[in-house]
Amino acid sequence: NWGGVAFDPNSKLAFVFASDLGTIGWLEETGKEFPYRLSTPRPSAFAVNIGGQVLPCQQPPWSHLTAVDTTSGEIAWRMPVGVSESLPAEKQNTGRPGRASALVTASDLLFIAATDDNRLRALRASTGEMLWEDSLEQRGNANPMTFLDSAGNQRIAISATDELIVYGLRD
Questions:
Q1: d(Cα 37, Cα 80) in Å, to the nearest integer?
Q2: What gap in Å lies between CA 17 and CA 78, rounded to an integer?
Q3: Which has the closest alpha carbon to 82: 58, 99, 68, 103?
Q4: What's the pTM?
Q5: Could you confirm whether domain 5-20+48-139 is CATH 2.40.10.480?
Q6: Is the bond preceding 61 in cis, omega lying within 30 degrees of 0?
């Protein structure tokens, strides 16, 4: 949950991506030296591997995107973000763990690529309606960004590999 919040000053909606995963962890003094490791193995008791995809051992959704009306404090909409393709089709909308936040534009579009199912999604910011998605080579561990190119066209970019992937918006 380190990606931050996207905020639309026109609608006064704040968009918060959050993972809902239980974790157990602790530090222990062992008296032994261990070599530096870039990562640690996943605790197998808290995750199950189905068809090459790791699924948490708790009821989904495992992540969600929430739109909060900052004038009232009410939730405008909330939805799971991410699919678990190794599950049957009717059970795939689980929400997937993620680390980044969303980008909201003045044209009521919201982009998010935070989850480990490796997709960039475009939603209608006011309703949460899914408009478009594209597969990425890797997960988007970064917030999407927007810019105008030299011709004045709006672009959306995401870093999901060692490259910057750029998309154009249609009118």
A1: 33
A2: 10
A3: 99
A4: 0.82
A5: yes
A6: yes
Instruction: Please tell me what DSSP assigns to residue 72.
Output: T
Q: Which of 138, 124, 12 is closest to 68 using CA atoms?
A: 12
Chain length of the chain: 171
Query: Rounded to an integer, what distance in angstroms lies between the CA atom of residue 64 and that of residue 70?
Result: 18
Q: What is the pLDDT of residues 46-92, one digit of tens each?
A: 455 556 667 777 889 989 999 999 999 999 999 999 999 888 999 99
Cα 45 to Cα 38, 42, 50: the distances in Å are 21, 9, 14
Residues 6+ apart with CB under 8 A from 23: 46
CA of 28: how far to CAs of 12, 31, 43, 143, 163, in Å? Answer: 45, 9, 16, 34, 39
Contact 79, 28 (CB under 8 A): no
Distance (Å, rounded) from C-alpha 122 to C-alpha 163? 20
pLDDT tens digits, 103-144: 999 999 999 998 889 999 999 999 999 999 999 988 887 899
Cα–Cα distances in angstroms (integers) from residue 88 to residues 39, 98, 119, 142, 155, in the given order: 31, 22, 19, 29, 35
